[in-house]
Amino acid sequence: MKFFKYQGAGNDFVLIDNRKQQFDADDTALVARLCDRRFGIGADGLMLLQEKEGYDFEMLYYNADGNLGSMCGNGGRCIVSFAKHLGIIENKTAFLAVDGEHEASISDMADWVSLKMIDVRDIETYDEHYVLNTGSPHYVQLVDKLTGLDVFHAGRAIRYNDTYRQAGINVNFVEARDKGYAVRTYERGVEDETLACGTGVTAVALAMALHHNQVGNINTPIKAMGGDLNIRFTHLGNGIFENIYLEGPAKLVFEGSFS
What does the record give as the active site (predicted)? Predict the structure, then answer.
């Protein structure tokens, strides 16, 4: 079976064209093995591109542990690039993911994908952090000295505390920079720090707009460990966000086959 390896700002994925339903998506051990960085292809997750009536395609996302996951923003951008590679779309698309319909556009030259995310209306505000869902649940915390932070242990402690242990949560640590923010993320399902998280940087941008009482049309550059991303959106006030776009690179790394 043929596979394609893509990455978006260092967030990497195994992609499979499953329009003929040849891949056994219920085989969680197989998915986990393909994502394993020592005994498999190596990836933060695996995605299936499938046919779906009324849409250009359907995106099914699986975490590196083999389980069906929630929405993955960088994965969404990569599967748009993959659909263009397969000739399914040209420069614009509407596809279905686990959290609903998404629109996206892709440039001709630079593999730059702009992906529309779901609207966000509920942000939980605490003394030291924010919790919100941008297609996946996220915990956002401002920190000092982000570069030296032990993200694995700090993120794991939050993800497995009494509040989040059962359902899990992605944990984002953020530090203000001259232009935008720097972000490091511990991802559930991967259970480690990843080089980027699309729904995570989206959550950070929205939380920081609320934190600084910014309203109107906002553009937020984000520097992840694996590269630069951009989030643009409209904050109507009172934590109501619409027209949210996650933007960044999505590139084919290599392709191959497995038995």
Answer: 72, 72 (proton donor), 197 (proton acceptor)
Which domains are assigned to the chain? 2-117+250-257 (3.10.310.10), 123-245 (3.10.310.10)
Q: Is 78 tagged catalytic?
A: no
Write down the pLDDT at residue 195.
97
| Grouped pLDDT means (10 residues each) for the chain, 259 residues | 97 97 94 97 97 98 95 97 96 97 90 96 95 97 96 98 96 95 97 97 98 97 97 96 97 96
- On whether 58 is known to bind a ligand per the annotation, the reply is no
pLDDT for position 25: 87
First to last CA, the chain: 6
Which is catalytic among the residues 197, 224, 244, 250?
197
Q: Tell me if residue 35 is catalytic.
A: no
pTM of the model: 0.95
Q: Catalytic one among 72, 78, 132, 196? A: 72
What separation in angstroms does the CA of 211 have from each of 13, 56, 99?
A: 32, 37, 26
Q: Does 219 belong to an annotated binding site?
A: no
- Tell me how many degrees the CA angle 191-193-195 measures, rounded to the nearest 5: 135
What residue has token string 């086959």? 257
185 is in an annotated binding site: no
